[in-house]
Amino acid sequence: MKNIKIIVATHKKYQMPKDEMYVPVHVGSKGKDIIENYQRDEEKENISEKNPYFCELTGLYWAWKNLKSDYIGLVHYRRYFTNLNKIPKEEKEKFEIVLSKEQANNILESVDIILPKKRKYYIENLYSHYEHTMYIEPLKETRKIIEEKYPEYIVEFDKLHKRTSAHMFNMFVMKKELLNEYCTWLFDILFELEKIIDISQYDAFHARFFGRISELLLDVWINTKGLKYEELKVMDMQNINWLKKGMAFLKAKFMGKKYERSF
User: Most Cβ neighbours (<10 Å): which of 19, 23, 59, 136?
Assistant: First the structure.
């Protein structure tokens, strides 16, 4: 059985899977009250103070620098992988079908990475969706950084203008060696972006662009390297108001109104 650890990024106490593979990580824990039995992302080598801007990536950074497991993954307290297609409505029942260590072990025998099923954007591409819902300057600057420092990735980056689906949520499970390569690349880009963009020009919601841009960069990295992956269904543990989300999307696309909050 492989040594697999999947961190569960959370900012509050919440129900957690019983499987020992999962490690609850309190992201942005610096200066916050202790949550008993949760790993704090401010311990050892960390970037916990960047959480208001980097979101769950402060947990990823902590795992990359400090976990010694052979395989490392990231999920969220309200989003988990499952290998079942039929999802129950009740949250309690959902926790019973969260991806187990045995299931993850079997999948990783034949692929490099476990990823969520792609999210599809039917009426626009990934770049235009970002431009309509968020402020585009950080994404434009990201392209400049990649072109200068990692030009072999620019072809895949530019496909954001054509692709209409992506592996979102910063969720995955991969071998530690791959994680080391990915995080070295990702955080180098994001730390360069941090030097260029004045975060103070954005409100608290839009200042979190580092986490959102990283969602788009994951496929840029995977596709450039030609890695083999298996997609699993993602369960939202809490109900999503799809009507509100849909209305916000339409207002962003046709009325130029940026998103104001997460859904």
Answer: 59
Residue 42, domain member (yes or no):
yes
- Is residue 101 in a domain? yes
| Angle in degrees, CA 208, 214, 215, rounded to 5 | 100
The answer as to whether 262 is a domain residue is no
Which residues does 22 contact at the CB level (< 8 Å), separation at least 6? 5, 6, 7, 8, 16, 75, 98
Residues 6+ apart with CB under 8 A from 142: 157, 189, 193, 213, 217
Bridge partners (DSSP) listed for residue 119: 166
Residue 122: per-residue pLDDT: 86
Cα separations in angstroms, 36 against 25, 39, 217, 252 = 11, 9, 34, 40
Domain count of the chain? 1
Residue 263 placed within a domain: no
Within 10 angstroms of residue 101's Cβ, the number of other Cβ atoms is 19
In three-state secondary structure terms, 1 is coil
- For the entire predicted model, the pTM comes to 0.93
Structure confidence at residue 171 (pLDDT): 98
The pLDDT value recorded for residue 260 is 62
Distance of CA 157 to the CA centre of its chain: 17
Polymer length of the chain: 263
Q: Which residues of the chain have pLDDT under 70?
A: 240-263
Task: Report the C-alpha gap between 101 and 171 in whole angstroms.
Answer: 16
Residue 75's pLDDT is 98
Helix (H, G, I), strand (E, B), or coil: what is residue 119?
strand
* The Cα angle at residue 71 between residues 226 and 180, in degrees rounded to 5: 60
